[in-house]
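Fold Annotation — chain and its backbone

Fields — amino acid sequence, structure tokens

___
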Amino acid sequence: MKIAILGAGNGGSAVAADLSLGGHKVTLIKTTPQLRSPHFDHLMATGGRITLWEKGDFRETHIAHVTTDLEQLAEAELVIVYIQTNYHEALIQRMLAHLRPGQIVLLNPGYLSTAYFLKHGMPAGLTVVEAESSFIDCRIMEPGVIKAGFRNVRNPLGVYPLARLEATKAKLSQVGFPFTYLSSVVEAALHNPNLIVHTVGAIMSIPRIEKTGGDYCMYHEVFTPSVWKLLEALDGEKMNVLEKLGFERMSYAQACRFRNSADLSLHAKAVFEAYAAMPTRAKGPVTVDSRYITEDVPQGLVLLETLAESLSVPTPICTALIDIAGAALGRNFRPEGRTLDNLGRDNVRLILSESRMA
């Protein structure tokens, strides 16, 4: 399959390498050509040579095309977006001129960026898919070398419009990742684990980040019994919103088990604890203004809060975390975040009206 990947960072590079090893013709597109990247420079200089290091096994391949040219999107059957969700709206506006009917755009993850396609003129015949989370936990170890630390056992996706669900399933079955399907892109957005685990973990780690300069591992240290209670309180607010929208209640831990464990009979929290304790977990976050806060607060918590306000669902923990994060960083995250006014209230209503739960 011809696949274009937008974003040449950790996730985009890992998936580009994995799909290239699987025999797909991949075009990796760097979306910020003005910013230097030794890793991307290496890919350009070597004709896309990249190595995926996983469980001690080194596999080398070549990405078919490495470029900064968005015009290459027109040649792809599948477009995968692998950039921070803060930049989705601006990128979607740039993408639209190069997309065509019949293509699938997969946002990994999405945080309801489907609404931005509708807001800016989604082409007829285009399908938008949102993933809950990245398929591969990974890091660029050095230019041209990606370390894969963990792969999801299942990757839940939401599809818009739902009329193309079966055709999308058939197409994506060729990709090689274990996909499962949700009732809506809204479920994918609210089950993004980073909305819960990154925000609580990073905000509660602020003293540790500053004291150590990031020389610690959030997943190994922060989720003590008291912090887990805070996580569960925020997660309860998220489930209240899901339920009010007509979706099934599913906790963060249950969703984690579904993505990460083949054995669904295991205790959900135990699966999270095993995942968090993995020795391949990266250090950090190394600064307070990392994406754990600067992305997942405005794009995740603000999204949850604005949906809750429209439904008259109280979210005191969510609101408090937004306020605390803003005070700590000296920023107001709401104007830059995913409010219903920013996404477009009619766009969100249209997406909800097409869900299988409607």
